[in-house]
C-alpha cells in the first residue's frame, strides 16, 4: 500500500476532513460511512486527508488509495482535547490544506476556524444531536463557519429555525449509497443468506436496521405486527439488526415480542461491509422512528436493494419515501396501529411488493449515489475557494 504522495501525483486541492472524536474509520455508523464514502469519491480528483481518533486495533496512518489517507490520532476523552490534537496534526501536515470539513461538531469546527482563519472551514451536519436550541455557544460556533452543509432539507430548516443564521450560509446535500453493492439478489443467493443468518425462508420478512434505542420505535413496530390479522401475522417474521449499549432494553424488546407472539430474530450488529446481504432477504423494511430523523441512510440502502420502506413521516425520510410509490409514510407514527394497514397491504400483494421494490431501486439510481453527493460537495467547495 502506498504511504506517501509522489511529486508526479496531481491533485486540484487538499481537502481535510475531521471525523468526530468517538468514531473509528472505517466504521458501521452512518457518520463514519458517509465520511469515508465521500472522501473516496473526492480523492479521485483531490488530495484528501481524514483525521480520525486512534483505536487500539488500528494503525496510525492508512492510505486507502494514492490520494486518500486516514491519519489517526490519540483520542482524548474531552472533545476540546481532541480538537487541540487535530489542530496540531494539521500544522504538521506536509501538504498545505485548502479546505477543512468538520463533521457534526460545531464547537470543534469553531476552535479549528479560530486557529486557521484564512482557510475555509465547513461544518457538515448529520443530525440535530450537537446543536441544542437556545445555546449561545453553539450559536457563536455556527456563525464562524464559512458554510454549513446538512444532509437533508428537513435538517436545514430545523437549523434555521433554531439559530439566527443567514440562509445563504447553509445548504443541503443528500447522502448516497453504493448501488453496485446494495442491490437485489437472485433467489438462489437468498437461500444461502437465509441459512447464514438462520432465518426461515418462506415468511413475509419485516426488517429493522439501526440502533436499539427507545426513540427508534422498535417496540412500536412489534406492536404493529401484533395488530395484524392472525392469518397474516402467522406468516410474518421480524428481523432486527443493530447494536445496543443496553442489554436490558434488548431483553425488554424480546419479552414484548414473546408476550405478543411476534416471531422475531435479533441478529445484533451486522458490519456494514456485510449488511448488503441482509436487506434483500426482507420483504420490506420499517423505519418507525419516534423522533426527528435528519436523513436515514438505511432507507436508501433498503430501496437500493429493491425492497419497499414503511417509515415515520418525519424529517428527511419524507424526502426519500414517496407514499404509495416506493413505500409508505405513516403520519401519526406514535400509534402502532397506523403501521399495520401498510404491512398488511404489502403482505397480501406480491405484485405490489415487486412494483414498489422496483420503484425504490429506480429512486436510488436517479437520485442517490455517493458520486453525486461528492460532486455537489466539490462544487460547493470550489465556489468557497
From TrEMBL:
<dbReference type="GO" id="GO:0016757">
    <property type="term" value="F:glycosyltransferase activity"/>
</dbReference>
<keyword id="KW-0808">Transferase</keyword>
<dbReference type="InterPro" id="IPR028098">
    <property type="entry name" value="Glyco_trans_4-like_N"/>
</dbReference>
<protein>
    <submittedName>
        <fullName>Glycosyltransferase family 4 protein</fullName>
        <ecNumber>2.4.-.-</ecNumber>
    </submittedName>
</protein>
<dbReference type="Pfam" id="PF00534">
    <property type="entry name" value="Glycos_transf_1"/>
</dbReference>
<dbReference type="InterPro" id="IPR050194">
    <property type="entry name" value="Glycosyltransferase_grp1"/>
</dbReference>
<dbReference type="InterPro" id="IPR001296">
    <property type="entry name" value="Glyco_trans_1"/>
</dbReference>
<feature type="domain" description="Glycosyltransferase subfamily 4-like N-terminal">
    <location>
        <begin position="31"/>
        <end position="179"/>
    </location>
</feature>
<dbReference type="Pfam" id="PF13439">
    <property type="entry name" value="Glyco_transf_4"/>
</dbReference>
<feature type="domain" description="Glycosyl transferase family 1">
    <location>
        <begin position="199"/>
        <end position="361"/>
    </location>
</feature>
<keyword id="KW-0328">Glycosyltransferase</keyword>
Amino acid at each position: 500500500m502506498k504511504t506517501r504522495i509522489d511529486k508526479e501525483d496531481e491533485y486540484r486541492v487538499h481537502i481535510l476532513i475531521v471525523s468526530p472524536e468517538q468514531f473509528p474509520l472505517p466504521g458501521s455508523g452512518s457518520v463514519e460511512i458517509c465520511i469515508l464514502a465521500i472522501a473516496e469519491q473526492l480523492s479521485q480528483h483531490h488530495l484528501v486527508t481524514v483525521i480520525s481518533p486512534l483505536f487500539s486495533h488500528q494503525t496510525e496512518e492508512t492510505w486507502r488509495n494514492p490520494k486518500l489517507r486516514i491519519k489517526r490520532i490519540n483520542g482524548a476523552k474531552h472533545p476540546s482535547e481532541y480538537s487541540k490534537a487535530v489542530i496540531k496534526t494539521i500544522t504538521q501536515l506536509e501538504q498545505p490544506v485548502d479546505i477543512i470539513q468538520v463533521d457534526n461538531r460545531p464547537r470543534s469546527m469553531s476552535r479549528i476556524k479560530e486557529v486557521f482563519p484564512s482557510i475555509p472551514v465547513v461544518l457538515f451536519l448529520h443530525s440535530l444531536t450537537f446543536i441544542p436550541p437556545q445555546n449561545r455557544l453553539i450559536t457563536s460556533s455556527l456563525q464562524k463557519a464559512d458554510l454549513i452543509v446538512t444532509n437533508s432539507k428537513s435538517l436545514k430548516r430545523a437549523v434555521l429555525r433554531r439559530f439566527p443564521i443567514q440562509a445563504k450560509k447553509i445548504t443541503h446535500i443528500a447522502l448516497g449509497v453504493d448501488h453496485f453493492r446494495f442491490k437485489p439478489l437472485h433467489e438462489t443467493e437468498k437461500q444461502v443468506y437465509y441459512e447464514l443468518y438462520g432465518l426461515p425462508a418462506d415468511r413475509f420478512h419485516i426488517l429493522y436496521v439501526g440502533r436499539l434505542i427507545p426513540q427508534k420505535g422498535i417496540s412500536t413496530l412489534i406492536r404493529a405486527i401484533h395488530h395484524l390479522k392472525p392469518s397474516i401475522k402467522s406468516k410474518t417474521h421480524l428481523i432486527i439488526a443493530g447494536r445496543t449499549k443496553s442489554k436490558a432494553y434488548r431483553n425488554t424488546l424480546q419479552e414484548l415480542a414473546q408476550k405478543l407472539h411476534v416471531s422475531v430474530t435479533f441478529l445484533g450488529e451486522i458490519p456494514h461491509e456485510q449488511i448488503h446481504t441482509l436487506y434483500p432477504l426482507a420483504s420490506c423494511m420499517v423505519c418507525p422512528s419516534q423522533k426527528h430523523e435528519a436523513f436515514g441512510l438505511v432507507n436508501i440502502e433498503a430501496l437500493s436493494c429493491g425492497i419497499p420502506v414503511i417509515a415515520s413521516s418525519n424529517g428527511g425520510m419524507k424526502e426519500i419515501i414517496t407514499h404509495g410509490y416506493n413505500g409508505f409514510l405513516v403520519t401519526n407514527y406514535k400509534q402502532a396501529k397506523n403501521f399495520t394497514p401498510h404491512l398488511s397491504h404489502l403482505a397480501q400483494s406480491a405484485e405490489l411488493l415487486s412494483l414498489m421494490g422496483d420503484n425504490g431501486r429506480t429512486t436510488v439510481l436517479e437520485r442517490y449515489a455517493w458520486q453525486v453527493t461528492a460532486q455537489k460537495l466539490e462544487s460547493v467547495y470550489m465556489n468557497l475557494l
